[in-house]
């Protein structure tokens, strides 16, 4: 399906605050959230540092949650129809299978279960203990699926409408143990713990409750609206702690002093420029925020004016924690979607900032030291889509993290002629498979063997004409993909051993005689 990127170039109109239809009050769930009005698809909101700004799509367009951006009404990317809305009980003419075939990126609410949904981009399962439908998926407990935003959200932010809203963790399919896996220790322990917690909370009021899960352990659970709510309760100190004190393997941003010098250190967990922590003898002694208008400085001077720009309006200063960012005192922004500090700036991907030369350089020439070196283009702030009419970053900068140098599959363009070129785990550009000149046919990039293959080697469900030897006799077989009379493929033991063209003037014959002279039909005398 061709992407109609021209739609994202449409210009939206800013609407003054107070022009919100109905009683809807927009709330930013993250500093740069982008979301649609729940009842008017022509209106959307762009958050800037937590403040929502209402925008209006141009005439004959609506806001698409999947792009995201304004798109033509009734186009391929218009996800405003009732099929994607809360009124999921309305009958549709297309099955999930048919809708996924039409749009392999679609996300569809489950018609009856508020915690489940269908994800058309989900890797098709050959077999699942949990779901019969290969596209079916489920939110983690206690989240529910938001039919407007098409994503899992905190349950108290979701309107289920006619869909069933489960509150017991054991009503979530992925928390149960199928009969065939019941003897699996990990599954059993997990199921017992989740279900004990859930039963406790469904009988209790809101608040903290101690749930005995084993003879030697006690688990603190928090019940809110009869659900188990995960809390960052430290088993080490037996109290609630901030994410900065929670180990990273447990979902936190622990600021660790092990091996660090005594003094103040920058936040290397959430990269907040105005937060620092102090160390003494390898132990953390404090976590603090700088006064308003100041940022982290160094070991001995924790807080300084941003970039020391008041002393030198031409100064250029490296960012204390990010190797690709810096402060440019000669740059003064009144407003930015991307940076809170008016002097903050960033090198173009994949360059890094050289702290000695005070300029952006080829990443191979820069020593980052203690600063974090980013390799993914989408970790560069200026590549993010923090405003409308933006092609998503993952489309423009496919991830090469963990991939070898050279051609690699582009996840957003699987089974197409296009592929990603990687160098040092960085995206270095895109490539395109050339035509197979021997067989005179297009080639796709195969994610299975990481190379270009002809359409005769591409599965038919991915747009190819796979010549399959499964269940066939040994010998030569005719082209049953494109029906070319002079092309055949050979099989041996159920495996394809070759794809070939007959010599000029010949066509396919049979299993043992692949090519025979073509019949010549003489004109009537």
Notes on the protein architecture:
With 525 residues, the protein is mostly beta strands. The protein has five domains: 5-80, Antimicrobial Protein, Tachycitin, Chain A, CATH 2.170.140; 84-166, no CATH class; 263-383, no CATH class; 398-466, no CATH class; 467-518, no CATH class. The protein has helices spanning 96-102, 185-203, 393-396, and strands spanning 13-14, 34-36, 43-48, 51-56, 61-64, 69-72, 107-109, 116-119, 136-138, 144-146, 151-153, 207-214, 217-224, 227-229, 233-234, 239-240, 263-266, 275-280, 283-289, 295-296, 303-304, 316-318, 325-328, 344-346, 352-354, 359-361, 406-408, 418-423, 426-432, 443-446, 451-454, 475-478, 487-492, 495-501, 506-508, 515-517. The chain has a four-stranded antiparallel beta sheet with strand order 1-4-3-2, with no helix packed on it. Strand 20 and strand 21 (303-304) form a beta hairpin. It is globular, with a radius of gyration of 29 Å.
Question: Helices and strands in order, then pairings?
Answer:
Elements: E1 13-14, E2 34-36, E3 43-48, E4 51-56, E5 61-64, E6 69-72, H1 96-102, E7 107-109, E8 116-119, E9 136-138, E10 144-146, E11 151-153, H2 185-203, E12 207-214, E13 217-224, E14 227-229, E15 233-234, E16 239-240, E17 263-266, E18 275-280, E19 283-289, E20 295-296, E21 303-304, E22 316-318, E23 325-328, E24 344-346, E25 352-354, E26 359-361, H3 393-396, E27 406-408, E28 418-423, E29 426-432, E30 443-446, E31 451-454, E32 475-478, E33 487-492, E34 495-501, E35 506-508, E36 515-517
Antiparallel strand pairs: 1-4, 2-3, 3-4, 5-6, 7-8, 8-9, 10-11, 12-13, 13-14, 15-16, 17-18, 18-19, 20-21, 22-23, 23-24, 25-26, 27-28, 28-29, 30-31, 32-33, 33-34, 35-36
